[in-house]
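thoughts on both lines:
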Amino acid sequence: MTLTVIRNRGLALTTLVLAIAVTLSFAASARAGEWVQRSCSYGTEYIAPEGWEGKENYGYDKMPYNNCERFANGGGLETLASGFDGTQALSGQTWQYKAPSYATIAGGVLAVAMTARHGGAIVASEVKEQPVSLASCESPGCHSLDRMVPITAVGATELHETAFCFPNGEGVCPAENFNTSEANGIFAAEATISSAQIILSTNATPTGSGFTGTLLNNTVTGKGTLSFTAKDPGPGVYQTRVKIDGEQAWAATPNLNEGKCVSTGTTEGVRAFNYTQPCPTETAVHAEIDTAGLADGAHALTVEVEDAAGDTTTVYAGTLTTLNHPVATIPPPNRGATNGTPTSDNATLTASPRDARTYTRGLSHSALTLTGRLTDPSHTPITGAQIQLLQQPTSASAPTQIATTTTRADGTWTIKAPKGPSRLLRVAYFSHTLDTTPAATLDFHERVPAVVSMHAPHRTRLGHTVVFSGQLAGGYVPPRGESVQMEIFYSGRWRTIEVLPTNSQGRWTYKYVFTLGAGASYRFRAVTVPNGVYPFMSAASKPVDVTVLR
């Protein structure tokens, strides 16, 4: 295929053909998973530009430069074009990105800078054999261009950044002193991609095989094991999960792939990585699950595998039988005194009809008052019994006691939970004071969005540093801090510009320098990044508008 560049010089219409081979593949009609590959520089972090290859065009004898590590000084994937000794028309350089063989391009954004003095520069791709220009700059109508460029070539497998020179009246590029031009930074055309965030789409489906372990088709007491091999022919195995009766009992990333399988945040709501193949295509999985908290009998056991693109497959479904609570006809001496009248090992806790079992509330309103009734199997109220309230944040492995109360004469009870994070609230009745396993439980689930503040000056000037700062409220910040994602509202969408950690108190700062955009106003916000360690739902700060003064 060819990419055609048309240049209008007065009444003459000169058509210049830049030969760029493009191989295309298109996604199937089924729903595809998506992930983001970041490359070159992202913020101030260097990321290897995997998938990009430099090429010479039409006799240009220098390969394009990879200056991604020089981002702080304006580096990136650079292409140049300069005539010398009658260089062939359209000579120059190209950077070509190829998506993985199992994926197509679904969107994203590029940071592009271009200059054209006696030539042109273009960032393009093709869709259904038609060239699509994402950004271009040609002399004499364009001198320079510096902006974020959305990738609209949905369905293609390649992107191209090219700089080329225009011919003179003799059909060749005007000769220049190449060494002098290079030293002074004067070229017929230049183009640089300083960062790339490419959304990739795939129909790859995770699978699992070779299932073994005591959890499979056995009666389990205490801990059970499960081992298998997880595979994904696409971006790789990101997470595996074991569920019992639909509730998650275990989850892990089984293989970090030397750190490549760690998400660096999100772009346009899609999980991002720094590599073409972020996660392993095949990995061993081993899980150990304590079944002591399950009721005796049969339970539904399912195993899920999720790939880096967010596609999830149930790879195993079976039955798990547990036996952890043998019935004792005579209470053992170490069970302690009885709890309530009448005492029952088969008691029932019921919630009041007005109480929901699942809540979504803000942090300031997360304190709850729960009510209900405790009865024995014959529906007789159990009076004078101590009721415990246990809390298990979503990041914790076990519940802890946070409150107690005593049942009234009719078996009713009222108990208050203090403010807290997203959590399981479990009301528990122990029929004897030394029991470690409750005779009855009643579960409530509370989902609480995070609270993140952000402060910044509302005005600045080009070249000045803007300092954004904020803090996470509500505590429960991991010792190593929590991730906060800085976003800017651009071209109708919130776009990620940096992922940074807080300290152990949840405080964070971010510095940003405007190099262009004088006279415009830009909107920023901070967003928490859910990672399973911080027990709050993802939430955004109140946006802050910053005006760049002239």
